[in-house]
Design goal:
This protein is α/β, with parallel strands linked by helices and about 325 residues long. The protein is built from 11 helices and 14 strands. Strand 2, helix 2 and strand 3 (about 65-70) form a beta-alpha-beta unit. The protein starts with a strand and ends in a 7-residue tail after the last strand.
């Protein structure tokens, strides 16, 4: 069994528990086996559990192991760094894969790390990227472009756009940039430029919305903007509004007729595909999504960490995993 190393911000006793878990971390590896660590943004986030399972699947092929590290609940850079430091203090790891929450903060905290470090899912910002030996994940700008292209198919005449985002997250910022590139028709659009009518799409003054990676907050924001009639195109570059499909249905209950008629459309970026998402598509309550293959990200991360631990040179330090795109029109998997 692979231990999950956790920390919570409110209790010294829980931090002590983390230390105990680390001291008695079980291992199924041989004496020569490698121990690889995956630090997700949350150990209770299904996407990072899927990544870890892919990592463990690959590691076990060579009698190695992959350990999931991090904190419970919402993404938190301080808790993430605490979990990393606890792990490195108490257990010998051969390599780590990190999904970056706050690039500047984590780069400062990991400046002296002495084992191979790669990033997955979310990379460091460009100025901090020297810390990472490789990146495994998706092309986040392309992910955003794919969401933008969905909107162009659904609303070819344009409209008022509201983007759901979160602050201090490199991959989320890149997705937002990709959305704006696609809808502005300008691939060289400056990173922080909003949609201001360059084409037929314009961003609502209230948006983008900072969800703070919090699902109830995202749903409250969606309800408020629907009530205020501030947008007719909603683009969530993460799964926040729809991951709890029942709560999402309740939030939009008074506006279902607008969703079904496509007067209002919503597209989202998600982790793995779920039956609930396809049900929402069939009912025209969701109009498209772009999905990430997290198990494959985990497998590739384990492969790269293994090669680096063995002193092998990488032929490529950026590995992209293809996305899956689906819409109400039944767009084929990509």
């Amino acid at each position: 069994m692979v231990a999950q190393i956790m920390n919570k911000k409110t209790s010294n006793s829980l931090l002590l528990l983390c230390t105990i878990l680390l001291l008695y971390l079980p291992s199924n590896t041989t004496a020569e086996g490698l121990r690889l660590g995956m630090i997700g943004k949350s150990i209770t986030d299904g996407n990072f559990i899927d990544s870890w399972q892919g990592c463990q699947e690959y590691a076990q092929l060579s009698d190695n192991e992959c350990v999931l590290l991090g904190n419970e609940g919402a993404a938190n850079a301080r808790q993430q760094l605490t979990a990393i430091n606890l792990a490195l203090d108490k257990v010998s790891f051969d390599a780590l894969a990190l999904s970056v929450t706050n690039s500047n903060y984590l780069a400062q905290g990991l400046a002296n790390i002495n084992i191979p470090l790669i990033t997955f899912d979310s990379p460091f910002a460009a100025k901090d990227n020297k810390l990472s030996r490789a990146y495994v994940g998706i092309d986040n700008v392309e992910f955003g472009r794919q969401l933008g292209e969905l909107v162009k198919k659904l609303k070819p005449n344009g409209g008022r756009v509201c983007i759901f985002s979160t602050l201090h997250d490199t991959n989320i910022a890149q997705r937002v940039w990709g959305v704006r590139q696609a809808l502005s028709g300008y691939s060289q659009l400056p990173v922080d430029s909003r949609l201001q009518g360059q084409t037929a799409w314009i961003e609502s003054d209230r948006c983008p919305l900072n969800t703070a990676d919090n699902i109830p907050r995202a749903l409250n924001q969606l309800q408020a903007t629907l009530q205020a009639d501030e947008a007719d195109i909603y683009i969530a570059v993460g799964w926040w509004p729809i991951v709890d499909s029942q709560a999402y249905r309740q939030t939009i209950a008074d506006y279902q007729h607008k969703f079904r008629s496509h007067e209002v459309v919503l597209v989202a970026g998600v982790g793995k595909t779920e039956p609930e998402y396809d049900e929402l598509l069939e009912q025209h309550l969701l109009h498209g999504y772009v999905s990430i293959n997290f198990p494959e990200i985990g497998r590739l991360s384990a492969k790269i960490m293994t090669e680096l631990s063995q002193g092998k040179a990488l032929t490529d330090n950026t590995l992209f995993v293809a996305n899956i795109v689906r819409t109400v029109e039944g767009l084929a998997d990509k």
